[in-house]
Amino acid sequence: MKVRSENLTPALLTFYKKPVMINQGHMQWLWDINGKRYLDLFAGIVTVSVGHCHPKVTKAAEKQMRKLWHTTNIYLHPAIHDYAEKLVAKLPGDLKVVYFTNSGSEANDLALLMARMYTGTFEALSLRNAYHGASPYLMGLTALSTWKYNSPTGLGIHQTMNADPYRGPWGGARCRDSPSQVVGRSCDCAEGQCQAGEHYLDQLKDTVAFSMPNKRCGAFFAESIQGVGGTVQFPKNFLKPAFEHVRSHGGVCISDEVQTGFGRLGTHFWGFETHDVVPDIVTMAKGIGNGFPLAAVVTTPDIAKHMGTALHFNTYGGNPMASAVGSAVLDAIEEDGTQQNSLEVGTYFINKLRELQNEFDVIGDVRGKGLMIGLELVSDREKRTPLPADRVGKMWEDMKDMGLLVGKGGLYGTTLRIKPPMCITKEDTDFAIDVMRKAFQNSCQ
Question: DSSP letter at 99?
Answer without folding.
Answer: E
